Amino acid sequence: MDPVVVLVLCLSCLLLLSLWRQSSGRRKLPPGPTPLPIIGNILQLGVKNIKKCFRNVSTLYDSAVSCQGKTNASPCDPTFILGCAPCNVICSIIFQNRFDYKDQNFLNLMEKFNENFRIQGSLWILICNTFPSILDYFPGIHNKLFKNIASLRSYITEKIKEHQESLDINNPRDFIDCFLIKMEQEKHIQQSEFTIENLISTVSDLFIAGTETTSTTLRYGLLLLLKHPEVRAKVQEEIDRVVGRHRSPCMQDRSFMPYTDAVVHEVQRYIDLVPNSAPHAVTRDIKFRNYLIPKGTTIFPSLTSVLHDDKEFPNPEMFDPGHFLDESGNFKKSDYFMPFSTGKRICVGEGLARMELFLFLITILQNFNLKSLVDPKDLDTTPPNSRSLSLPPSYRICFIPV
C-alpha cells in the first residue's frame, strides 16, 4: 500500500480517536473552551503569560461567581437572574435537581412564571377574582394564565411519571418521592388526600408561590437599596463585621445582624407585595362584629391595613428599617408584620422564603457593590399599579464585584 495512503489512514484514525475521547471525557468535566483535536487547548493557552490566560479562561467559565453573577458590572435588568435562584431552590426540593440557567425547560418555566405574575397583577384579574362567574363567559388574559398553568401541570405530570418508574420507597429523593410513598401507604384509605391530582396541584402551587414572590421581593429590595445608599452601607458594614468575605452566610448569623434583619423585614413591609392577600371563601355562615357573612362569600384580607398601620409603623409610607429596631439598635418583632398572611391559611412557604431572602440578599451584598444608572434621588420605587400585586417598576442595575 502506498505510504502516503497509510499515513493518511493513521492520521484519520488518530483524529477520530481524539474526537471520541474528548466527547466522552468532557461529559464529566466542568465547562470550558472547546479543545481542538489532538492538540487540545494548547493554542488557546499562549506561551507568554500562561497565568493571565488561565485567569481569563476561569473568568469565562466560572459559573459560580462570574457568569451567574449576576454580568461583568454591565447594566442589566435583574429580573431573570433573581428569578432563577429561587426557582432552582424549589426545583431542588421537588425534583432533587437544579437546572442550568440555559436549560430550555428551565427557561420555559421561567417565562411562564414571569408572564403569569404580570397577568395576576392586572386589573382584569382583580375583576375576575371579585366576580369569578365571568371566567367561563368572557375572553381575556385569564385564558393565557390558565394555558400557562395547564402547561406547567403537564410538565409536572411527566416528572411524576419519571419518579414513579424509579421510586425506591426506602430511599426517597425529594418531595415527589415522599408524597408517592405516602400514597402507597394510604392506598386502601378511600378518602385519602394523597392522590396524584393533589400531588400535581401541590407541586404546582409550590412552584407558582415559591418562585415569583421571592424573586419579586428581592428585585424590589435591590431597588430600595439603590434608592437608599445609606441603608446599603450599614448592611454591608454589618456583613463585613459578622460574616466577612471568606465564608458564605448562614441563618445562625441573623441573630448577630439586627440591622440586616430589620432591612429584610422593612422591605417586605414597605412593598406590601400582595396587598389583599389571596382570595378566600367562607365555608359556613360566620358572625363577625355583629355582621353576618354568608357561606360562599369571597373574602380579601387587607394586609395593607396592618403592614402600613401608622400607629405601629410611624410614617408607614417611608422606607425605614428603624420600624423594626428598638432604641438600642436591637431587632424588634411586630405582631403587625404579616406579609405571608395569618391564621390557618398562612403561606406554607414562609420559613423557606424568609431564609431565602436573608441569605440571597447578604450573598449579593457580600460580593457586589450596587450601582444605579441614575441619581438615587431620581429613582422611582412606586409600583406601576397597586391592584392585586405590588410589582416594582422596571430598572437597570450594575453589580460591581467587591
From TrEMBL:
Signal peptide: 1-25
EC number: 1.14.14.1
Subcellular location: Endoplasmic reticulum membrane; Microsome membrane
Main location: endoplasmic reticulum
Superkingdom assignment: Eukaryota
Coiled coil spans: none
Record family assignment: Belongs to the cytochrome P450 family.
UniProt name for this protein: unspecific monooxygenase
Organism annotation: Galeopterus variegatus (Malayan flying lemur)
Lineage, broadest ranks: Eukaryota, Metazoa, Chordata, Craniata, Vertebrata
Gene expressing this chain: LOC103610588
